[in-house]
Amino acid sequence: MELEFASFRLFTRGKLRKRNQLKASEVRQSLTDMFADDILIYNCCPPSQTFVTAQESLYQVTDWCGSWLLRINADKYESMKFIRARPPALCNYTINECFQKSPGGVRGRLKVDAVPTLFSFTKVQTQRKAPQHRSNMATQRQETAGLNSDESIANAVPLTESNEVGQSIKEADNSQDQSLQLIINELEGKVKQLEHELKQERETRKTLEEKLNRSLFNIDNIKENDNLMRFYTGFNSYAVFTTVLNFLGREAAKQLNYTNTELVQNPPKREKQGPRRALSVENELFLLLCRYKVGLLEEDVAVRFGICQSLVSRIIITWTKFIYFRFSELDIFPTREVIEAHKPECFRNKYNGTTVIIDATELYIETPTNPEAQQLTFSTYKNGNTLKALVGITPSGSVCFVSNLYGGSISDKEITVKSKLMDKLQYGDEVMADRGFNIQELLASKGVKVNVPPYMNEAGQFTEQEMLNTRRIASLRIHVERAIERIKNYHILDFIPITVCKNGLVDMIFFNCAMFTNFLPPLVK
Question: What local confidence, expressed as pLDDT, does residue 106 receive?
Fold first, then answer.
């Protein structure tokens, strides 16, 4: 029973008495002497609780009042006020312990020996719960198993009832098995149907993928068609295409870098620097050859291969440089022994000592804006701005010499000197050229003979021998023109933009196209 002592008030029906400080014995005596009437003692509860009351005669409980005063520790309180008013309010949390009810009664009476026990200045210590008993699970299982077996033996039913129960259980199991079997059969049928549908979907997907792959523009879809290979690549078959790629080096081509990473700080370490490949090595070479042979614009190539135009440009530039430096490692000018071993009969009977057949060719370019460049590249022969190159072939028709490109205004004699063709020739060699190459005196110092058609005499007519020599030389010199025509079949050379001329890429392109023609069948047999 808890009593609130912020201010202690006793309410009685007698007269009022105040004391500032009271000892326990004084209060006890005062209570005994002063109050003869009954004291109403109330329990104070929170607003949500119900007030209960108890009445007791103060004359009969003087010892009880002393116990109250001792329990409330009256010496510690400076003021105990006795005000005549309503009954005292006492907080009760243990009503069942402090009050007793008569049988059938409603109001409770305070027990004689009931005294306060809980105060604001006391600390209530909660009693710790007793620890739970723990047992070994294995032992418990064994005991439970044994107990269950004993109970099953003890509770065994008669044999007749057991048979009936077993029969009913068996019938229930059979019914359940039948229903489960029906469900299983239904599910198996659905599984088979789904497997069949899945198989059909896979076949449809495979067919669509094959159709899509056939519609893509790549080397795999045209390698079986020699006509398409010749049209797009300039090679007669896919085997020649593979030979060229193997010569260039597949592994080296996989390491090609399409971007400049020199200025990139801490570039990631990868097997190949730059962007990841959007195309395979074969398709990259196929893309380059389509640009070379057919002359497709970069935007067109980008749409055909499904990549962006900037990537097409980087692939073309990178592969052009790669092929150029790979072919430049070779000395394509053959020795005299090799030339003799492969010399056709037409040269053996007429001009057996011929080593190389030369001729100049010109490529149209975009008109430069610089007047000096216009003057340098203007060709009176083509009546336009061109670039000029010197090409030499062996008697069998293979390209064995390709010079750099010069302005179209350069003469045949000057381009022969600048191209350093004379460094390739030896004493006793013979050069066949057109009558425009007035280089006899230039090559005579090295012991090299020049076979050119005879010039027309003052009479304006050829002699019989001059006519015969002109026809013989023309019949053999035509092969160099055929070789140049093979080079110009790569339509990227039809018209050269001025931007390509400025960075020197046009020299590499022309050289690469000339080298690709050497993978074709010989011109002269």
Answer: 64
